[in-house]
Write a structure and sequence with these properties.
Shape: globular
Radius of gyration: 14 Å
Distance between the termini: 22 Å
Number of strands: 10
């Protein structure tokens, strides 16, 4: 997912509220994870190369298509009980914020901010 000229950089930890990053994510050495109560603070997800990691699911990106500031992904996701194919669409708002879009529901979006993970 990286190394493409002009491609939107999604790598990192993303939370719905930038001021809640330390309540959503934890770091042990070089490994990012979720705090026990992360969803109470709005939740988020981690992008690591072609991996999308949520609190209860882990996805592998199979197809990525960048169109300007929009990124469309098709990923295979696994939870404790099932496998599924999921489509994600995001729009880069700036270098550290994105909006998840829901095709067919133009008025709906969820904004995420990149967390500075030291």
């Amino acid at each position: 997912m990286n190394g493409r000229a002009g491609a939107v950089d999604l790598n990192g930890a993303w939370a719905t509220s930038a001021d809640q990053c330390d309540k959503v994510f934890t770091r042990e050495g070089d490994k990012l994870g979720f705090t026990e109560m992360s969803e109470v603070y709005g939740g988020g997800f981690i992008v690591d190369g072609d991996q999308l990691i949520g609190k209860s699911a882990r996805c592998k990106v199979k197809v990525r298509r960048d169109v300007g500031t929009n990124v469309n992904l098709i990923a295979t996701c696994a939870t404790d009980i099932m496998l599924s194919s999921v489509q994600f669409s995001v729009k880069a708002l700036d270098a550290n914020s994105i909006a998840r879009l829901f095709p067919g529901m133009e008025d709906m979006e969820i904004r995420y901010n990149r967390c500075p993970m030291r």
